[in-house]
């Protein structure tokens, strides 16, 4: 069931009219495809592209992401927030919460900034890119991967965790509906996502190492997330873009 074919009709039938999901069998990257459509003025808020296989999938910090055909849920969607851009840093955090909330049958937690973990192993990651007056969010979830297909030992999948009774079609519809609910409240000025995020965070309260893109490394205790989505350390440092390692 986890590797059942993607079906745009089945997905769209379980969504509000805000979303329009298109399924492609093969593409280089749903993120690149949707960004190109937005740039050309050919995409609207609520457009979604989901692929059975990506040959050049992208993650954060220009990293690549690849999964065997049918083994992962790989998609990108476009939104146009009304809130001030200074608040947009919370959107990827909100997307991470939405992924974790949609993974029924497991206790998923969010690792700042963009990873979703089960038992400290990564099951999902995402990327958010500002394009024109909106944001394209790309998400990858390890669904049907077996242990032999997992790219690194620190990763897991729904199959490995014993969740077998959901299809990618159902998971995508559930996730988009969950995100829509969270996003609509936030976009109307509500900040109730903050305590929800804190309760699901695997990072807050942890001793961490911060690895910056320029090679700098610093340590500290993660204590909160700022109004703009930055990770705040106990010494007052605000981390905008970095890899976070949880120290045990």
Q: How many separate domains? A: 2
> What's the name of the CATH homologous superfamily of the largest domain?
Bira Bifunctional Protein, Domain 2
User: Major sheet: size, sense and barrel closure?
Assistant: 7 strands, mixed
What's the level 1 CATH class of the largest domain? Alpha Beta
Major sheet: arrangement of strands: 1-2-5-9-8-7-6
- SSE series: HEHEEEEHEEEEHHEEEEE
Distance between the termini: 36 Å
Q: What is the residue-mean pLDDT, rounded to a whole number?
A: 94
State Rg. 17 Å
Strand segment tally: 14
Q: Can you name the CATH architecture of the largest domain?
A: 2-Layer Sandwich
Low-pLDDT residue intervals, each spanning 5 or more residues: none
CATH topology of the largest domain: BirA Bifunctional Protein, domain 2
- Shape designation: globular
Classify the beta-strand content into a percent band.
Answer: 25-35%
* Number of discrete helical segments: 5
Q: Share of helix among residues? A: 10-25%
What structural category do the secondary elements indicate?
alpha+beta
Could you please describe the fold and organization of this structure?
- By secondary structure, this protein is an alpha+beta fold.
- The chain has two domains: 8-198, 2-Layer Sandwich (BirA Bifunctional Protein, domain 2), CATH 3.30.930.10; 203-246, SH3 type barrels (Roll).
- It has helices at residues 8-12, 30-39, 90-102, 168-187, 193-200, and strands at 20-27, 47-54, 57-58, 64-65, 72-79, 108-111, 115-118, 121-131, 134-142, 207-211, 217-225, 231-233, 238-239, 243-246.
- Strands 1-2-5-9-8-7-6 form a seven-stranded mixed beta sheet, with helices on both faces. It has a five-stranded antiparallel beta sheet with strand order 13-12-11-10-14, with no helix packed on it. Strands 3-4 form a two-stranded antiparallel sheet.
- Helix 3 packs across helix 4 and helix 3 (90-102) packs across helix 5 (193-200).
